[in-house]
Specification:
By secondary structure, this protein is of the alpha/beta class. The chain has one domain (about 5-205): Aldolase class I (TIM Barrel). It is about 25% helix and about 25% strand. It is built from seven helices and nine strands. The chain has helices spanning about 5, 65-70, 90-100, 135-140, 150-160, 180-190, 200-205, and strands spanning about 10-20, 30-40, 60-65, 80, 105-110, 120-125, 140-145, 170-175, 195. A nine-stranded mixed β-sheet has the order 3-1-2-4-5-6-7-8-9. α2 runs parallel beside α3 (about 90-100). The protein is globular, with a radius of gyration of 17 Å. The mean pLDDT is about 95.
């Protein structure tokens, strides 16, 4: 059975979890938001902190009407669609229904698949293992590059050269080496002030 058959053209999606929390990373750090996390990822970063999302087959397709009703039942005015890699699926039906309810929609993506859906904000987190499509760079409002070792800064600069001039640039230390790599990122950002540093503040707050 194809993805189109299973997910009925986006009428259903492999929902891993949905929850109300505080955005912990990037430009919108500190903002209350309702997260919709979808299963499935074909990038497979060794340091991923959401490996449980990779296999979409263990998450039964959930009707987007159910997802939307749960989202609008909470106080959040902002929705974050994340994964896994959410662009594996047709997102236009979900984003249309969320927009009809007056919600703003943020997307977190590696940019490795074609865009579908309508978004108020796109956070592009590019991965070397499966580079973003060129269109993703053009759509990004925010570029968030995960830095595990100093050589990753070269990749960050390659990506920064492809986004628009209004795109916000963030370097984010990979969590397991954050203390070790942070001094390097601080000095790099001071020398190259187009970059800001993002930290996973939700982990310090001990929230999802």
């Amino acid at each position: 059975m194809t993805n189109t058959d299973i997910f009925e053209g986006g009428a259903k999606l492999p929902l891993v979890e949905d929850f109300y929390t505080i955005q912990g990373e990037g430009f919108h750090t500190g903002k209350p938001a309702y997260f919709i996390r979808l299963g499935g990822c074909d990038v497979g970063c060794a340091w991923c902190d959401a490996k449980y999302t990779w296999n979409s087959r263990i998450y039964p397709p959930t009707a987007i009407d159910v997802i939307v009703e749960r989202a609008v039942a909470c106080e959040a005015q902002s929705i974050v669609i994340t994964g896994g890699e959410p662009l594996l699926y047709p997102l236009e039906p979900l984003t249309r229904k969320l927009k009809e309810r007056g919600l703003e929609i943020f997307l977190e993506t590696s940019g490795s698949h074609p865009f579908t859906g309508e978004f108020d904000w796109v956070c592009l987190s590019p991965k070397r293992k499966l580079a973003p499509l060129e269109d993703a760079y053009k759509r990004a409002h925010e570029l968030k590059v995960i830095i595990q070792e100093e050589s990753d800064l070269e990749w960050a600069e390659e990506c920064a050269a492809k986004v628009g001039t209004e795109c916000y640039l963030f370097l984010q230390p990979e969590w397991s080496v954050a203390e070790k790599i942070m001094p390097t990122l601080v000095e790099y950002a001071k020398r190259n002030p187009k970059w800001s540093i993002s930290i996973q503040s939700h982990k310090y707050m001990r929230i999802p």
